[in-house]
Write a structure and sequence with these properties.
alpha+beta, 5 strands, 40% strand, 3-stranded antiparallel β-sheet, two-stranded antiparallel ribbon, 1 helix
Length: 65
C-alpha cells in the first residue's frame, strides 16, 4: 500500500514528499549528505503555518507551509 499525506490549511497545502524534500535540502545546504540521514521527524503546525523538523536527533529547523 502506498499512502500520501497532504497538509492543507487556509488555502495552502504541502505534501509529505515536499516536506521531506525541504528538510533534506536544508541538510544538504548545511554541507551534509542526504545518505547520512538516519532519522527524520516532521512536526506540522498549521496554526503557525510552519513545519519543524529534526534530523538525526541533533539537526533542527523549520520552513513555511
Amino acid at each position: 500500500m502506498k499512502a500520501n499525506v497532504v497538509l492543507q490549511f487556509q488555502g495552502r497545502e504541502k505534501s509529505e514528499e515536499e516536506m521531506i524534500k525541504e528538510a533534506q535540502q536544508a541538510w544538504k545546504d548545511a554541507g551534509r549528505k542526504v545518505a547520512d540521514i538516519k532519522s527524520l521527524r516532521l512536526y506540522a503546525k498549521p496554526e503557525e503555518a510552519m513545519v519543524y523538523y529534526v534530523i538525526n536527533d541533533d539537526f533542527e529547523g523549520s520552513f513555511g507551509i
